[in-house]
Specification:
This protein has a single domain (about 15-245), classed as Alpha-Beta Barrel (TIM Barrel). The chain is about 35% helix and about 20% strand. The chain has helices at about 30-40, 55-65, 100-115, 135-145, 180-190, 215-225, 225-235; strands at about 15-25, 45-50, 70-75, 75-80, 85-90, 125, 160, 190-200, 240. Helix 2 links the parallel strand 2 (about 45-50) and strand 3. Helix 1 packs parallel to helix 2, helix 1 runs parallel beside helix 6 (about 215-225) and helix 5 (about 180-190) packs parallel to helix 7 (about 225-235). The protein is globular, with a radius of gyration of 17 Å. The relative contact order is 0.21.
C-alpha cells in the first residue's frame, strides 16, 4: 500500500512550515485527533509509532488522507515524572548499546515499510531520545540512507517545540498550548523551512491513561483546529507543507 501521491512543487514563498503531529498509532483516539487536525486544522504531517497497538488502524485512516505525510517516530522507551522523579514507563532496548539500538531502529524501519508500503518522509523520535548517543549516530545514518529530514539536525527544517503543554518537571502549562500561544508562534516564524511539532489527542482517551501527556492533547487539538490559527497562517504568508514536499534535504 503506497500512500505517496504525486509530489507537489514548493511555491516561491520564503516561509514554509511543516506542522507535524507525533505519536500516530499510539491509540485510536490519538490517531483520530491527528486526522481531524489535518482535515480541519493545520497539521500537514505525522510520525508513526510502529510498535503501538493501534498502528494498523492508524494506517487505514491515513489511506483516506494521502496528503498527510507519514514519517517514522522511533520508539525506544518512555519516561514520566512519578513522585517528583523521572522514571521509565517502558524500555524497548538498552539505549546505551549501539548494536542493539541500530538493530531496533532497523526493525522499526522494516515495520514501517510493511505497514505503509513506502519509506518514511522524515524521522524523529519519542521524547527526542535520538538527541543522545549512540541513538543520534544511528538515526543520522538512517536519515542519510533514506535521504530524509531528521529532527534536530540541519535537515532543511528549523524546529519549533514551543507548542507543548508541560514544563521540564511534567507540570501542565495550559497557556503554552492555547490558541493565543499558537498564533503567537506562527507570527514569530522566520523565513525558511520550519517544523512545528504537536501532540493532539481526544479528551479522556482511556488508552493513554498511563502516559505522561494526556489532558494536554485535547487542548492541542482544539487549538490546531481553531479558525483563528488558520487565519494567522494566512496573514503571515506561510505555506503549509509536509516533509514529502522537501526536495533539498541535507542531513549531517
Amino acid at each position: 500500500m503506497n500512500l505517496d501521491p504525486t509530489t507537489p512543487s514548493i511555491p516561491s514563498s520564503p516561509t514554509i512550515v511543516v506542522v507535524n503531529a507525533d505519536d500516530f498509532g499510539l491509540s485510536d483516539g490519538v490517531s483520530r485527533a491527528i486526522v481531524r487536525a489535518h482535515v480541519e486544522g493545520i497539521v500537514t504531517s505525522t510520525s508513526v509509532m510502529v510498535r503501538a497497538t493501534a498502528v494498523e488502524r492508524a494506517i487505514e485512516m491515513a489511506r483516506d488522507h494521502p496528503a498527510l505525510g507519514l514519517g517514522l517516530h522511533l520508539d525506544l522507551g518512555e519516561w514520566a515524572v512519578r513522585d517528583g522523579e523521572w522514571r521509565a514507563l517502558y524500555s524497548v532496548v538498552d539505549t546505551g548499546d549501539a548494536d542493539a539500538v541500530a538493530a531496533e531502529i532497523a526493525r522499526q524501519l522494516e515495520r514501517f515499510r510493511a505497514l505503509v508500503g513506502a519509506d518514511p518522509t522524515h524521522i524523529d523520535s519519542h521524547q527526542h531520545v535520538h538527541r543522545g548517543e549512540p541513538i543520534a549516530s544511528a538515526a543520522r545514518s538512517l536519515a542519510r540512507k533514506l535521504d530524509v529530514p531528521l529532527r534536530h539536525t540541519r535537515s532543511g527544517a528549523r524546529y519549533h517545540g514551543d507548542f507543548y503543554g508541560q514544563d521540564g518537571d511534567g507540570a501542565t502549562r495550559r497557556a503554552w498550548i492555547s490558541v493565543d500561544a499558537l498564533v503567537s508562534l506562527i507570527e514569530r516564524i522566520e523565513p525558511g523551512v520550519n517544523e512545528i511539532a504537536c501532540h493532539p489527542g481526544e479528551p479522556d482517551d482511556p488508552a493513554i491513561a498511563s502516559t505522561m501527556y494526556r489532558a494536554e492533547r485535547a487542548l492541542e487539538l482544539e487549538a490546531l483546529c481553531d479558525p483563528r490559527v488558520r487565519e494567522a497562517v494566512g496573514r503571515a504568508g506561510i505555506n503549509l507543507r509536509s516533509f514529502r514536499d522537501m526536495g533539498f534535504v541535507v542531513v549531517p
